[in-house]
Amino acid sequence: MVLRILIVGGGLAGQATALALRKAGHHIQVFEQSHLTPEDTAGPIVHLGPRSNELLRSWGIDTAVASGVIIKQIDEFDHGGNTKDTGAVSPPGWMYYERSKLHRALLSAATASTEAGVPVEVHLRTEVVSVDSQAARVVLGDGRVFEGDVVVGADGFYSTVRKAIAQVDNIPIKDQKIAAQFSVQSHSGPLTQRFQYQSDRYEKWAGAGLEVHIYSAEPGRLLFECTLSAQAGTDLTSAWIKAQLVQAFENKNTELARILAALDIKDIRSWTQTSYPKVQTWTSDKVVLVGDAAHPFLPHEAPGTSQSLNDAAALAAKLSSDMKAEDIPSHLAAWTTLRRERLRTLPCFYASACT
Ligand SMILES: Cc1cc2nc3c(=O)[nH]c(=O)nc-3n(C[C@H](O)[C@H](O)[C@H](O)COP(=O)(O)OP(=O)(O)OC[C@H]3O[C@@H](n4cnc5c(N)ncnc54)[C@H](O)[C@@H]3O)c2cc1C
Predict the structure, then answer these.
(1) Whole-structure pTM value
(2) Whose CB among 94, 149, 270, 304 lies 3.0–4.6 Å from 297's, allowing a Cys bridge?
(3) 310 in Cβ contact with 294 (< 8 Å)
(4) Intrachain domains 4-45+98-172+276-353 and 176-273 with the same fold
């Protein structure tokens, strides 16, 4: 049977799920509270392994058009700019993406009228305020009600859909985690020259207590990212972030130290996490959670997007178009078992989150 599927949240997990389920022959509507502008979908660089990139290609996404850069080499430096390690990436096929461009590619593929299947309908600036799991019904902030066969909660770390179906324990993180990002015009110096010479690489610089990753995300600009830890109660301003960065690389006459010293704090973006939801249940009746709504990752843990893509592919495989309506809850439960088993094997995943 062709299912009417309502997806709450149009981030990377929501768009990937919409695309995979459209390709499985279903009719999809996505409800997204933001405008999905590049500003709304910006975020830290996304690294994807060879299998996730293959999955994107199998959905018809041209990974190069989605701004994907095949990483050929990673060079590591100490805080004085001395090479610690350099090497080819293994296995080959790892790529990094600017988040908003990867998001745009998934959204375009999901809504394209030229592809097989019914184009996904995306309702922007549409907040879902409640969900009925037995009726597969969502209620919007403006009072409208939509009913389908399945509701997918892809509404992220602070999921509304999760509140309707799952018991959640908020686990405080000992040290708050802050992911910070900024970009600067290319300078003249050895760092800049290395990227001019070879852009399919990135660098890791180990400072005192933190590591900075450097990419050449756009021609003529270098992109810097790092994860910082801070004790509870710290005032996490951009000025504080800059001070940590400058301190980590100070006393060295390197191009990085000069870039950090000249950094305008208005150019720093940051994302902070202070607690961690441990989600006990991923499905109830006709509702299922995917992506960060089901299994949130902290900023220093990488694989949230790749696991979201795998959630989408596995869900599309379980919800085949020859299934019957009464089988939906058992198929969603089978999907949950499969995915929890997979996530348990990830060494970086917060151990108790899947138990
Ligand atoms: C700092 C950082 C670095 C990361 N680096 C990597 C990496 O290198 N590789 C990797 O694989 N993953 C990485 N991740 C993880 C990755 O970003 C996420 O796991 C992935 O994007 C999946 O997110 P999502 O779509 O589930 O949630 P989100 O991106 O949070 O999207 C949720 C969407 O739902 C919408 N929404 C929320 N509530 C409602 C509502 N009530 N009604 C309607 N819409 C709603 C939001 O507006 C949003 O668009 C990183 C995460 C962080 C924080």
Answers:
(1) 0.93
(2) 304
(3) no
(4) no
- pLDDT of 353 above 80: no
Nearest ligand 1 atom, CA 271: 1
pLDDT tens track for 125-139? 999 999 999 999 999
Phi-psi map region of 209: left, alpha, beta (phi>0 left; psi -120 to 50 alpha): left
- In CATH, what number does 4-45+98-172+276-353 get? 3.50.50.60
Q: What are the structural domain ranges in the chain?
A: 4-45+98-172+276-353, 176-273
Q: What is the dihedral of CA 165, 295, 101, 49, to 10 degrees?
A: -150
User: What mean pLDDT do residues 5-33 have?
Assistant: 98
Q: Which residues line ligand 1 (CB under 6 A)?
A: 8-14, 31-34, 43-44, 46-47, 127-128, 154-157, 160, 179, 271, 291-293, 297, 299, 302-306, 308
Q: What's the CA-to-centroid distance between 157 and ligand 1, angstroms?
A: 7
Which atom of ligand 1 is nearest the CA belonging to 179?
A: 1
- Any idea of the CA torsion for 63, 66, 72, 75, to the nearest 10 degrees? -150
Q: Which of 16-20, 83-87, 193-197 has the highest mean pLDDT?
A: 16-20
Task: Select from 160, 204, 297 the residue to mutate for testing ligand 1; criterion: most ligand atoms less than 8 Å from CB.
Answer: 297
CA 9 – ligand 1 centroid, Å: 9
Look-up of token digits 């990867």: 102
* Mean predicted confidence (pLDDT) in 190-196: 89
Pocket residue to mutate for ligand 1, from 8, 17, 46, 160, most atoms within 8 A of Cβ: 46
| pLDDT tier at 350, thresholds 50, 70, 90 | low
Measured in Å, residue 346 CA sits from the centre of ligand 1 at 19
Averaged over 290-311, what is the pLDDT?
86
Question: Within 10 Å of residue 3's Cβ, how many Cβ atoms?
Answer: 21
CB 16 within 8 A of CB 107: no
* CATH of region 176-273: 3.30.9.30
Residues constituting the chain: 355
